[in-house]
């Protein structure tokens, strides 16, 4: 939302140079001028747009730039490390698969594992669920909880307030480049509170405009329906009016309701 979240984290990761102020990691001053400096300090970042080579395998993407004593890729050791991380945190990957053949969620997993292989103990994720399905998001949250339980610090950048409340222990709210609040997520916070801190003012409930209902286009009343189990009737009158969206819900007996609704719709079409 333009508050400066990503910019601030890009400074911490060394993508941008700091103009003023200080960075401290584990209580010590840290001079970070590049991603290499950040990684040397144990800071990794998964960007919203991934930094992977599509034509290379998962293992090749993970091992290029990883700590080592030579320019040769340690494929055997790398594969074992990838398998260990996958098993420990629920981030399983097929090492020999081309990145171009992976889903977006799997590519994100590669980025997370890449940061961990490089020794990240502080992991920044920039809008990580913007490219994921709800099911993939739940899988990501499980992995982040496992990482946090193992002592990894997670910085989760998002403006999806329900997700923020579901995954975080503490929240920092930014507005127009300034930190305006830091809160403990103790279970008492509501999305509306966070939204008002983000906006800087109380949010009025959305106005619901008056809808002027038009004439009745379709009317059902006392319709008798024949079926395999004998004759029945739709006792509830039904009016479909212009400028109105008419909905219906299923009663408790789902199968009976579906059959009854289907017969009623068929009768309506037949009589129209």
Largest sheet: 3 strands, parallel
Q: What's the shape?
A: extended
Note the run of SSEs as H and E.
HEEHEHHHEHEHEEHEEEEH
Beta-strand content estimate? 15-25%
Overall CATH class of the largest domain: Alpha Beta
- Spatially, the strands of the biggest sheet line up as 3-4-5
What is the number of domains?
A: 2
Percent helix range: 25-40%
Count of helical segments?
9
Return the CATH topology of the largest domain: Rossmann fold
* Measured distance between first and last alpha carbons: 50 Å
The number of E-state strands comes to: 11
| Radius of gyration using CA atoms only | 28 Å
Description:
The structure is a single chain. With 272 residues, the protein is an alpha/beta fold. The protein has two domains: 5-199, P-loop containing nucleotide triphosphate hydrolases (Rossmann fold); 216-271, no CATH class. The protein has helices at residues 5-12, 35-40, 58-63, 75-89, 104-117, 134-149, 161-167, 191-199, 254-271; strands at residues 24-25, 28-29, 43-46, 122-126, 153-157, 170-175, 178-184, 216-220, 223-227, 230-234, 238-241. The strands form five sheets. A three-stranded parallel sheet has the order 3-4-5, sandwiched between helices. The protein has a two-stranded antiparallel sheet with strand order 1-2. Helix 6 links the parallel strand 4 and strand 5. The protein is extended. Mean pLDDT is 84; it is low at 254-259 and 266-272.
